[in-house]
Amino acid sequence: MKAIEVVNLVKTYGAGETAVHALKGVDLDVFESELLLLLGASGSGKTTLISIVGGILSATSGNCVIRGREIVGLPQSKLPKIRLENIGFIFQGFNLFPALTTQENVEIALDLKGVRGGKAKKRAAELLERVGLKEKLKTFPADLSGGQKQRVAIARALAGEPPIILADEPTAALDSESGRLIMDLLQELAHEQNRAIVVVTHDNRIFDYADRIVKIEDGRISKDESNEQTDAATWMAVPSASVNIPQTA
Ligand SMILES: Nc1ncnc2c1ncn2[C@@H]1O[C@H](COP(=O)(O)OP(=O)(O)OP(=O)(O)O)[C@@H](O)[C@H]1O
Ligand SMILES: [Mg+2]
User: Fold this and answer.
1) Full-prediction pTM beyond 0.70?
2) 215 burial via Cβ count (<10 Å: 0-12, 13-18, 19+)
């Protein structure tokens, strides 16, 4: 099933002489159980695209359907609910609260879902255990490695059990080992829990984790290719699919 359907998506920042045409008509489908890597040079429109898909930035025109629900053109007030029910975000900078323990950082995300008190504590502990941080519940972000912080960010993104996870450069700041742990985790979330996962990256160390690699160039999709392990059935719906892994980042 399609988790995300983007059709002719256009985003222009500003207007007139100084307008920046960040997305110039992007088409993209992302399926359940799929880990998609989104590649592209700096400024090509990657963050803009996932921000619109995630309902935190409005599009100029085009369509974006999240699990059957059109979000472009919806009033701003409707977006938070759709976001909360469907999307987990993982940002490169972790966005952890330094004065809160790892457990409390996850509890905050649960609070947004209406889960509070003892229930939230228990649930936060479960989520942190799932990302391998059972021993670090009471630890503050300053005492965690980059990979561990990233895993807290993932636990937080999972708080709402979102069917869609959007990650912007989740491994960029990490050593290879930590990066692989994060990608193992994301792959498991896609393949074993049927989530749709989009990972924006420049990191060629993680290309072999992709079910599909999509390249964006100057606001347009320039390549859309399945990786070898991709389930052929999923691919039937995508006319531009081929079985090659692109050689370049
Ligand atoms: N808020 C904004 N106002 C004006 N222009 C913006 C804004 N955000 C992004 N842009 C411009 O839109 C284009 C696409 O930016 P975007 O952040 O989506 O690129 P990116 O592919 O994520 O780049 P990077 O790899 O450096 O993170 C760039 O030219 C950028 O300068
Ligand atoms: Mg970016």
Assistant:
1) yes
2) buried
